[in-house]
Amino acid sequence: MLKPINFKAHHGGAREERLLDFSASINPYKPHWLNDMLERTRALSNRYIYWESLEEELSNLIGEEVTITAGITEALYLIGILALREWRKAIIPKHTYEEYERIARVFGAEIIKASNEPEKLANFVERQSVVFFCNPNNPDGKFYTPKELKPLIQAVEDEKALLVLDEAFIDFVRNAKTPEGENIVKLRTFTKSYGMPGIRVGYVVGYSEAFKSVRMPWSIGALGYAFLEFLIKDEFHFLKETMPLIWKEKERMERELNVKSDANFFVKNVGNAGKAVKFLKQRGILVRDCSSFDLPELIRFSVRKRNENDKLIGALKEYLGEGDDSSI
Is the pLDDT of residue 11 over 60? Predict the structure, then answer.
């Protein structure tokens, strides 16, 4: 008999379209070529999708050999196939993205929960273990430089372990630098930085031969293929245009709400996250309850456009007793 695993991950993103969604941490802007891309999808939808040529073009654009996947989620399952099913040991920070734990459970791995700080986390690294590390971290948005990650990288190298760096939000970090190392796999995605999480396109840096040997064929489909075509042609100009707009609003929200983050989202202590989420939802605003991160006093919210951010700032100040919507 088939039995389900005893774990359910929680994710952001509105299920009700009428809500102003701050729970999903994505770019609030859209590329000017979006409609053309959707039209191209229609032309591609009557055939099987092979993306080897696009993979080579993307590698040339990025400057590193990459393996295209259906978002970071597919890459995580591939890590399960390549490493966890044999090594059966996963080291995961205490307050981070839940999907790491679910993947570990799917592949029957022992789970070790440890500190979120790289230097302390390094003490838990064991031989042939898989270390999952989100950078910048979800939910708090803390980004660790290569220098700050050095103790963890050294421990992974000494123990012949594997460090999985989830860099899903790295495009939102100013002047971000990423470390190098033989025992490092980097997971990245375009769907957050391009504001289209439904497209499901990401890539892996490192161990390309291994990842390509186990990935699912045709996993990104016509929509993902068309997206990659336009992205490669765009050469990341969209990111260069929109990231400064997001950073400007991010700085304003930091001042208004007394929060800090290296990414495009924040956490704030509101005492009771469930109560705050309910209050904001009544005002048409959706934020993330961080109880699933074992942080029940915190909410997480993203940076959106200025007029949308004004609504969140006003409602949150009202909830915290610092003013009302009219003060904005």
Answer: no
Looking at the structure, tell me whether residues 169 and 260 fall in a common domain: no
**Same-domain pairing of 167 and 268:** no
- Give all strands (DSSP E) within the chain, no chain letters: 20-21, 66-69, 89-93, 110-114, 130-134, 162-166, 184-189, 202-205, 265-269, 285-286, 288-289, 298-302
Q: Which domain holds residue 261?
A: 20-29+238-327
Percent over 70 (pLDDT), the chain: 93
- The vertex-98 CA angle with 93 and 102, nearest 5°, equals 105
> Residues 288, 300: contact at Cβ < 8 Å?
yes
Cβ burial, residue 189 (10 Å; 0-12/13-18/19+)? buried
CA distance 220 to 69: 7
pTM of the predicted model as reported, rounded to 2 decimal places: 0.91
Give the position of tokens 């969604």.
21
- Residues 232-244 have a mean pLDDT of 97
The answer on 155 and 50 residing in a single domain is yes
Q: Please, what is the angle between helix 306-319 and helix 237-257, to 10°? A: 20
